[in-house]
From TrEMBL:
InterPro entries noted in UniProt: GAF-like_dom_sf (IPR029016), Sig_transdc_resp-reg_C-effctor (IPR016032), Tscrpt_reg_LuxR_C (IPR000792), WH-like_DNA-bd_sf (IPR036388)
Superkingdom, natural source: Bacteria
Name of one Pfam family that matches: GerE
Residues in the signal sequence: none
Record key words, sorted: Coiled coil, Transcription, Transcription regulation
Keyword Coiled coil: yes
Name of the protein described by the UniProt record: LuxR C-terminal-related transcriptional regulator
Residue stretches in coiled coil: 119-146
Annotated source species: Fodinisporobacter ferrooxydans
Source lineage: Bacteria, Bacillati, Bacillota, Bacilli, Bacillales
């Protein structure tokens, strides 16, 4: 979902730039931009699977947004990573309807470009994405979800937990509905993550809602 929206915007921005989509832990799950920029980024260890959390990548737009839980701007020399020294980066969290952060979107472009154009652009894109996430969660039905889960050999209880997670129910809500403890729900979520090959809620939503 996010990649489709960003890809459409990518063609409209008339300057060299790079979009990075990460999960809630700051790990890149998608890069969008001109081929030469992505090639250069990959050559500098900026790729899918790269962690931009502070402990791994120091100061950057994503790590700062993770710390402040808000939209941030990091300019040129403020970056720790050498690749971004010539880039301005603006990054914003993506939230669910319950204000839980499920990922981040970062827009990077040359330090020669005025950063003010990017703030309203990214804000508009985030708002559009969050509306789509809300709509997709409201519209998903149990039968369709269970078909998506079928290849992963989830148990009946694990499917219930996975479906509740897609509906954005909390662990406490699911525990009450299913008549089990919160600890049991969390253990089943870990099994669901392991079987479906995801590490966190952001990746889980991306896998089954896009």
């Amino acid at each position: 979902m996010a990649t489709q929206d960003l890809s459409s915007v990518y063609t409209e921005i008339g300057i060299p730039h790079l979009f990075m989509i990460t999960d809630s832990n700051g790990t890149a799950i998608h890069l969008i931009g001109q081929a030469e920029i992505i090639d250069k980024a990959c050559g500098n260890n900026v790729n899918m699977g790269t962690s931009f959390a502070f402990e791994y990548a120091g100061i950057n737009g994503i790590s700062l947004a993770m710390q402040l839980h808000s939209t941030v701007v990091v300019q040129g020399v403020q970056h720790t990573m050498r690749f971004f020294k010539d880039w301005n980066c603006i990054c914003s969290p993506v939230r669910t309807i319950d204000e839980e952060i499920i990922g981040y979107i970062d827009l990077s472009f040359s330090t020669d470009v005025d950063v003010t154009f990017a703030v309203p652009l990214l804000k508009k894109m985030i708002e559009k994405l969050e509306r789509k996430l809300k709509k997709s969660r409201e519209s998903i039905n149990k039968e369709a979800a269970y078909l998506l889960f079928k290849p992963y050999n989830l148990s009946n209880r694990e499917r219930e937990v996975a479906f509740g997670w897609l509906q954005n129910k909390s662990v406490l809500q699911m525990a009450h509905l299913m008549g089990i403890t919160e600890g049991t729900v969390r253990n089943m979520l870990k099994k669901v993550y392991a079987k479906t090959g995801v590490r966190d809620k952001g990746q889980f939503f991306k896998k089954f809602l896009t």
